[in-house]
Design goal:
The structure is a single chain. By secondary structure, this protein is of the alpha/beta class. It has 2 domains: about 210 residues, Spore Coat Polysaccharide Biosynthesis Protein SpsA, Chain A; about 60 residues, no CATH class. Helices cover about 45% and strands about 15% of the residues. The protein contains 11 helices and 9 strands. Strands 1, 2, 3, 4, 5, 6, 7, 8 and 9 form a 9-stranded mixed beta sheet that branches. The longest helix is centred in the C-terminal third of the chain and has 27 residues.
Length: about 325
């Protein structure tokens, strides 16, 4: 077990997960780590998810503090996650999807790494999908080192390796709140948007190869059911935000990513006439997406600026 009992807030967004939520709940109460609270926010479920959550919490007699919050109206995943963050009291935060579960030693393993690397922004746990598959996308062993610090180093090497989804990450709460890393509302793929802006602020992360999280394949979940019109619309909004917040040091890498997204959405739009109203916006963003020559000019300007600053500093020292 760990030495100092860091308080952890497990946060669950709940919407129509009655069929799976008890499995998720049971995995929390089985945790070997006990200095925790669990925030459950129901986003106006139309099944009996809320009633199930309230019954399970009402019957629980252990040391974990459970808080159940109900939205007055359906708000979507982004606002529900923000509600979780705003109602949490832990030093570290941990998102868990209501149709998944965590391993018995999950929180303890992640807290050990938070202690080993004090003030680390994120501790990422390993995970796997169930039913098990070959070449599991969620398996991270061999893809991440145990510890990395330095924003540019992380962005250059791991922005496309660290999972976009916030689950199975132990976040230092001050990292979230001080950098105002809340979720943009009314988006599908809000994780992708959040991940981009989170990577602009991250200073360090740690990784444990121990399996902490089991992601269940649920055919009718948001992650596995196509819904192209809101999906395309959301991606176009995300790209527009990213284009306004590009990193000078990673321009080519980010440009490539943006073009892949836009070209994929263009294909989706062309796949059915009912999406045609989205094509003008997609074409507009493709035109706005700078080419490599534009990026080269920006990079040269940045280099020139740094050289001038260096020369000015040397001159000032000589003639002081």
């Amino acid at each position: 077990m760990v030495n100092r009992m860091i308080k952890v807030s497990i946060m669950i967004t709940l919407y129509n997960k009655e069929q799976w939520f008890e499995r998720c709940f049971d995995s929390i109460v089985r945790q070997t780590y006990k200095n925790m609270e669990c925030i459950i926010v129901d986003d106006c479920s139309t099944d009996k998810s809320l009633e199930l959550a309230e019954r399970l919490v009402g019957n629980y007699t252990g040391n974990i503090k459970f808080v159940v919050i109900k939205h007055a109206q359906n708000c979507g995943v982004a606002i529900t996650r923000n509600t979780c963050i705003n109602n949490s009291n832990g030093e570290y935060l941990y998102f868990l999807d209501a149709d998944d579960e965590i391993t018995e030693n999950c929180i303890n393993s992640l807290v050990l790494f938070a202690q080993k690397y004090p003030s680390v922004d994120i501790v990422q746990g390993n995970m796997y999908q169930y039913p098990r598959v070959e070449n599991d996308f969620y398996e991270l062993k061999g893809k991440l080192p145990e510890f990395v610090s330095g924003n540019l180093e992380i962005k250059r090497k791991y922005s496309e390796v660290l999972p976009v989804n916030p689950v199975n990450k132990l976040f230092r709460k001050k990292f979230i709140t001080q950098n105002y890393l809340y979720y943009k509302e009314k988006l599908i793929h809000e994780d992708f948007h959040w991940h981009f802006f989170m990577m602009k602020k991250i200073g360090s992360f740690a990784f444990t190869e121990e399996y902490c999280y089991i992601r269940y394949y649920v055919p009718d979940s948001i992650m596995t059911t196509p819904n192209l019109f809101p999906s395309i619309s959301s991606y176009l909004i995300i790209v527009e935000d990213i284009l306004s917040n590009l990193d000078v040091d990673l321009l080519e890498q980010q440009l490539k990513q943006i073009r892949v997204i836009l070209n994929n959405q263009k294909k989706n739009i062309l796949s059915d006439e009912k999406y045609s109203s989205l094509m003008p916006k997609c074409k507009e963003l493709l035109k706005k997406t700078p080419n490599k020559r534009f990026f080269a000019v920006l990079i040269m300007r940045e280099i020139t600026k740094k050289i001038k600053q260096r020369i000015s500093s040397i001159v000032n020292k000589i003639f002081r």
